[in-house]
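Collaborator request log, item 7. Partner lab (contact: R.S.) asked for a structural prediction of Purine operon repressor PurR to inform their binding assays.
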Amino acid sequence: MKKWKRSARLVDMTQQLLSQPHRLIPLSTFAERYQAAKSSISEDLAIIHEVFREEGEGMLQTVSGATGGIRFIPRVSHENALKLSQQICEQLRLPSRILPGGYLYLSDLLGDTKLVRDIGRLFASVFYDRQVDAVVTVETKGIPLAYATAGQLGVPVAIVRRDSRITEGSVVTINTVSGSSKRLGTLSLSRRSLPEGSSALIIDDFMKAGGTVRGMFDLLQEFHAEVVGVGVMADSRAEERLVDDYLSLATVDEVDVRERRIAVKAGTLFNGSDCDGDD
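Returned to partner:
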């Protein structure tokens, strides 16, 4: 087995940690891989931890004991989080996003792999201490955000469908009523996709009155699951809010179809502060 140079060891070790967030890696795994003493591995990890901390990208958490090791916890600094919110606000303000009926076009944002990855990392940073067992979202546009968040938390994704499919096997289905239009609908979740008693984090792309998220709350109760957090990329001002406890990165205050103008501010994560960063 080859002997690693320290510079190569540091690069590879960093990559190993970044690619497996929240996974506990025994020091012996690194020692065997690099043919190095645990004391040398510990020194390397101290260097990596310091770089992560200074750059506001995360931290290394040490677990002592025979079954202990080291795990990478993704974190996003307040400064970087606000920059991401500003980026989303700038994109949401574009008049070209306005669709008939006052709806907003969001597919390009949810197709931007870097933006989605950054949002997922931010949500993982915000909810990292909630002991999440699974990320739950509803089809279809929230799926990229859910996978990005789950990837940074090291947990699976459970997708709620608006209709049951034969390929899902046995499912649980409930009736829902949207918060704004009062339309009836259904939400379904495969019994195999979420173990009973799980701690679930709900992630979605856009929330109006919160009818869909409220429906997911009700559906998860059928699994005896606990909702430990709700994160949405953006929300809009609503007279009647069906969900109170949630975090958003941007808030759409007004969509003026006639004037082709969209008023946007930083979301609830930033207490509705100025989206231009004047905090």
